[in-house]
Design goal:
- The protein has 119 residues and is mostly beta strands.
- Helices cover 0% and strands 56% of the residues.
- It has strands spanning 3-4, 9-11, 14-16, 20-21, 28-29, 35-41, 45-52, 57-61, 66-73, 75-79, 84-88, 92-95, 101-105, 111-118.
- The strands form 4 sheets. A 6-stranded antiparallel beta sheet has the order 5-6-7-14-9-12, with no helix packed on it.
- The radius of gyration is 17 Å and the shape is globular.
């Protein structure tokens, strides 16, 4: 559900609905055991907010689309069959379609990540 922040704004005599917002607390939950929320979805892109608590893991899996992870907060590991990297706040990581990956929170606090799926 989107909420229009400037609904019915008028520019040059016509109505504009140009901003849509979504609150984390009310965003649709993803269908697995991690606190994940669907913040945006379109035919070409989806943005998921992930909040992994201490020790939580998203097990090795792959997707038929590219994914870009932006680390908002915390520390973790992103692992593929060939590589393992430690991630921290303000890092951006791209994983190609079909590449298996695992995400693990290794910090004492939450690992908060934006996952941008590019279809």
């Amino acid at each position: 559900m989107y909420f229009h922040t400037k609904a019915n704004a008028v520019q040059s005599g016509r109505k504009l609905d140009f901003m849509r917002t979504k609150l984390l607390e009310t965003a649709e939950k993803v269908g697995f055991n991690i606190d994940g929320r669907k913040m945006y979805s379109s035919p070409k892109t989806e943005i998921i907010h992930l909040d992994l608590k201490f020790g939580e893991v998203i097990e090795m899996h792959s997707n038929p689309f590219d994914v870009v992870f932006y680390i908002l907060e915390g520390a973790g590991i992103i692992e593929t069959p060939d590589e393992q990297i430690t991630v921290e706040q303000d890092m951006c990581i791209e994983i190609s379609a079909a590449e298996p990956r695992l995400i693990r929170n290794i910090g004492a606090d939450s690992l908060r990540v934006l996952a941008v799926k590019i279809f």
